[in-house]
Amino acid sequence: MRTFSKSHKLDNVCYDIRGPVMDEADRMIAAGEKILKLNIGNPAPFGFDAPPEIIGTMTDNLHNAQGYSTSKGIPQAREAILAYHRGKGVNVASIDDIYTGNGVSELITMVMQGLLDNGDEVLVPAPDYPLWTASVTLAGGTAVHYICDESSEWFPDIKDMESKITEKTKAVVIINPNNPTGAVYPREVLEQIAKLAREHDLIVFSDEIYDRLLMDGVEHTSIASIDPDLFCITFNGISKSHMSAGFRAGWMVLSGKKDNVRGYIEGLNMLSSMRLCSNVQAQYVIPAALKGTGAPDKELLPGGRIYDQRECIYTLLNDIDGISAVKPKAAFYIFPRIDAKKFGITSDEQFVLDLLRTKKILLVAGGGFHWEQPDHFRIVYLPCIDQLKLSMAEMKDFLSTYKQN
Ligand code: PLP
């Protein structure tokens, strides 16, 4: 009988956030066990509801949203996106340079499919949000990872980035604010990246989906605002800022000089048309969301859930012998270091599996974010403080006797 296996295009594509550890968790859940999931950045299951105004706007427009829209999206949504990014100092020429997508995810795969030939290289951060690496690989390219430096608040190591540029490098990806580290890059760092991109003719892809989830008064700067001529594609959406990941509303904005990227844009237009359009009812929500309607601002201040949960997880983690963590400034992730030597850890995936099986706590290993050493993991601190306290007490207990090798 003829058998079917996955295509060779997928041979090296890896997306571990929902990988083998998750399979084990699913098996345990099916067997009736209760797992505390600290692994997925999906606010809804943790009591963060999409704001009623946003849901109201969507349901009010269901009738208008029956048909396909133009492939880039309805003009009202793109006008609002244009105003938002211009307000952040980004040089966007018109709504023609704005594409809505079924979440940022769809657009990340689209920009790589449109750009890369086999063997082309793209600089991607380590740690990264792994869809970036997966999308480069799926498109036939090679993701070359540059290091973000934990000792320097997880900012990109510019020397490392520069040392990895070759004649095959077409683009550099930055994730700012960052998943999984929660870092927000200062202007000086962005200026250095922009300088490298200019000197080496690189396209800049900037994933800014967390730019409205900032804490401690930090400001967010779009790299596209640093140099009006630099060709950048900036990604954003409402999955996180409006706790509405299931609506699938994201967008990308092309900015800067376009003289030498006309062919690429033709490709993007073709790919955008091939998927007809993004989810139309979700597009109707974008103008309200970008005016700030229903934004979770209070949650990010002392007394708000995200802020208080961050304080809690940061303190509790650093209190565990053998664990240390840099304080995140944005989003809802923390990427702690675990002393691999102390615990004999040679496989971070095994560590995460052992914790899952013993304590029923689900994390993602650092390797899932293309972090090479087996000494990090990511926690999503969306669960409430009681659950975070419980999980950290369990982790402390687990580590008090854990030895992998
Ligand atoms: N970019 C980053 C950095 C993310 O963390 C995520 C989701 O976790 C996405 C993009 C995907 O977002 P969307 O829901 O818009 O597809």
From TrEMBL:
Top-rank taxon: Bacteria
InterPro entries attached to this UniProt entry: Ala_Aminotransferase, Aminotransferase_I/II_large, PyrdxlP-dep_Trfase, PyrdxlP-dep_Trfase_major, PyrdxlP-dep_Trfase_small
E.C. number: 2.6.1.2
Boundaries of every Aminotransferase class I/classII large domain copy: 34-387
Protein's UniProt keywords contain Transferase: yes
One example GO MF annotation: L-alanine:2-oxoglutarate aminotransferase activity
UniProt cross-references to PANTHER family, sorted A to Z: GLUTAMATE-PYRUVATE AMINOTRANSFERASE ALAA
Protein family according to the UniProt entry: Belongs to the class-I pyridoxal-phosphate-dependent aminotransferase family.
Listed name of the protein: alanine transaminase
